[in-house]
Specification:
Blueprint (H helix, E strand, L loop, with lengths): L1 H17 L7 H9 L6 H11 L3 E8 L4 E8 L2 E8 L5 E6 L2
Antiparallel strand pairs: 1-2, 2-3, 3-4
């Protein structure tokens, strides 16, 4: 069971590396930040990593909902933290399988 969880983590991490946040629509995200519609990624990342226990492994941006999904590993468990990009407020935290 532990090896399946580890392989799932490796696959998820590789997907995050292959498709970073900016790959979703770099110009669109930049324009939203410039227009003041969402907070800069670095500001939200700093806040989330200071509040959440675990090792940060990557993030994705959802243009339609204007949310970031941050991924962390803690004690071998992969979990997601969703954050509203407009306000920087955490929406939820859940374990990823």
């Amino acid at each position: 069971m532990r090896s399946i969880r580890f392989l799932s983590f490796v696959a998820s991490t590789l997907m995050l590396i292959a498709s970073p946040v900016a790959a979703a629509d770099e110009r669109g995200v930049h324009e939203l930040v410039k227009a003041g519609e969402i907070m800069p990624f670095e500001a939200i990342l700093g806040r989330v990593t200071s509040e959440v226990r675990g090792e940060y492994v990557g993030a994705q941006f959802d243009m339609s909902s204007r949310t970031y999904r941050f991924r962390f590993v803690d004690n071998g468990n992969l979990f997601n933290v969703d954050v509203d990009a407009r306000t920087g407020q955490r929406l939820n935290r859940r374990r990823s399988f």
